[in-house]
């Protein structure tokens, strides 16, 4: 299990390089690729939460406790996001000066938590760990593109922005290692890591990913988005016992 976690967190952390390559694509093509990745990521996150993580937790924690903890986890991710974006209320000049560093801090925390979630789900089941890793990877690529753009907008040079993104992405590896040691030393914590993952996936999908797809007003593209979102759910269903 340790080797799985280490390899996968390293691979996902390397997505900064892929994000840079995608920036060389034509703008319209980049927009299409990003939207489809977001749709697939949203589907796999929702499917993993409702078809795997929650059903796995109910026998161990009980139905009522499971859903109460999911709500707490959902609230936790909401608070974390609000804390990360506290600087949005500043005026425009302050925002431009601070947004680059604040974005990196938020990204580092986000990646660290992703690493813990990946390790926690691998502790439950390898297939579940693979699904979680897929969901995180699909979400991570568009996020890296966005983070790189934020740094450029804040006045960072291209090389400096790339190096910063790569450095911050390494925090996922540390999160994965911490999650592994926690699940190994304290086996009873595994169901709670599963619940944190479920609440986090529901929150990220519902508050971040799906809203990005709702702005599309072209019927054909919207149908494709719905189809790919559904494909993500079906993919997680196929991994059920």
Automatic annotation (TrEMBL):
InterPro entries: ZIP
Transmembrane segments: 6-24, 36-54, 66-84, 164-183, 189-210, 222-239
Keyword Transmembrane in record: yes
Entry's Gene Ontology molecular function annotations: metal ion transmembrane transporter activity
Protein name per the record: Zinc/iron permease
Topological relation to the membrane, as annotated: Multi-pass membrane protein
Alphabetic keyword roster: Membrane, Transmembrane, Transmembrane helix
A Pfam match: Zip
Subcellular location: Membrane
Source organism of the structure: candidate division WS6 bacterium GW2011_GWF2_39_15
GO cellular component: membrane
